[in-house]
Every structure is written in structure tokens, then in C-alpha cells.
Amino acid sequence: MDSVLVTGGTGLLGRRVVRALAADGHPVRILSRSPASPPVSGAEVTVADLSTGVGLPEAVAGATAIVHCATDPRNSRAVDVEGTERLLEAARDAGRPHLVSVSIVGIDRIPVTYYRAKLAAEEAIARSGLPWTVLRTTQFHGFVEELLGRLVRLPVVPVPRGWRLQPIDVEEVARRLADAVTAEPAGRLPDLGGPEVFPVAELVRDRLRRTGRYRPVVEVPLPGALSAALRAGANLVPGNHSGGRTWREFLDGRSPSPLPEG
């Protein structure tokens, strides 16, 4: 079986990728900035830093595939752009492993600094000379719930009018990335979205129902290029729905978080 290095292998997506690869019988090595316990027994942890390049040659040595999940929205230039370029250079020197990377739907159409960094990382992968596969997906259930959790604590919940989201199960994305490791390098795969598309207002009301509390939800028009892109559905993949848990199944499986009184 392919020996696979997983960057970001202790994160939300990465640790699930590690489990999926290990279940398939792959020897797995996890790239981590600091010593950490692996999410599955038998996985190896190697300390390396994408933002500086320290430890990368040792991390990629012997890997026949790399699943690149590491990211840092707060430091995207150093990690997502320059860090990806450092990883690619180390991979070329180590024998040209298959590079499988996760990305985000709409990064070429939504004017956000982090998305521009993700697009630059994709472009670096495409011109790297390595065999490569990139999968863009919509936002994970947990990320959407975290964002909504901040909103629903307000006495009146404002939501952007016309914005829609297509939350996806992180386990489904991990499975797709693990499958891509043993498939032929495919370049950019078809974008993948969650099972259903929801107006943000409906997601908020779902989140409120889960707490058993009432908050007025008010849709507010937002100006600007970002809002226009989201109203146009630049973050959606209506023609390519995934399997996995739906949004409401995800909520049903979570312990309700009480809201403050008032």
C-alpha cells in the first residue's frame, strides 16, 4: 500500500483522513508543527513546519502520496501559499509523490484574502510538475454551526439576505480524499457540495430550534462584492451533491448548547 504523509493530520479534517487511510491499510505519517498523539495507533508523527520549511525533507521522505490538509486562515500567505510551495519543492526532491489537496468551492469567484491564498496554492500545485489531485468542497457542518452559534446569542439575529450555504459532512470529504490517494492523479476533481442548499436564515432557525429557544431572525441586505458573490451562489455546487450526514442529521447528533437567558 502507498505510504501517505498527511499535512494537518491532527486537525478537524486531517485526523479523519488519517483514520480513513489507516482503515484502508496505508502506512500513515502525520506532519505536525509540534509533537502530538496520532488519531490512530500505528500512525507516525513527524515534526515539521510549513511556514519555515524546517523538517519538510524528512517528513516527505519515502512517501508515495501526500494528502495536504494543513491551512491557516490567520497566516495564509506563510502557510497556505509559501508553505505549499515549500512542501512541493520537498516533494519534488523526494521522488514526485502523488499530491492530493483539499480546497474550497468558489475561491476563484469570492473576493476574500484567504480564498485568494487558497487559489494561489492550487495554482502552485498545478504547475509543480508533480502528479496531483485537488478537491474543492463546501463548508463543513461544524464550521457552519460554529458561525451560527455566535449569531444566535444575540437578542435579535441578523442574517444576510440572499446568502445560501451547502454544508457538507467532514467524514465524507475525508473518505473522498482517501479514495483519491489510490486513484490515478486527476487534476482538479468536480467540486463537491453537501446534500442540501439552505438559505442562511433557515440554518439559523434550525440552530435555534435545537436550543429550544426563540430569537427573532431578521434578514438584512448587505452591499459589496463579497455579498454579491454569495447571493449569486459562488459558494455552492447544486449539481454535485455529496452523500454523508445531512445538516439536520448533524445537528441531531450534537448535544444542545444552551443559550443565555434574556
From TrEMBL:
Residue stretches making up the NAD(P)-binding domain: 8-140
Transmembrane segments: none
InterPro entries: ComplexI_NDUFA9_subunit, NAD(P)-bd_dom, NAD(P)-bd_dom_sf
Region (Disordered): 243-262
Record GO terms (molecular function): protein-containing complex binding
PANTHER family registered for this protein in UniProt: NADH DEHYDROGENASE [UBIQUINONE] 1 ALPHA SUBCOMPLEX SUBUNIT 9, MITOCHONDRIAL, NADH-UBIQUINONE OXIDOREDUCTASE 39 KDA SUBUNIT-RELATED
Protein name: Uncharacterized conserved protein YbjT, contains NAD(P)-binding and DUF2867 domains
Species whose genome carries this gene: Geodermatophilus obscurus
Higher taxonomy: Bacteria, Bacillati, Actinomycetota, Actinomycetes, Geodermatophilales
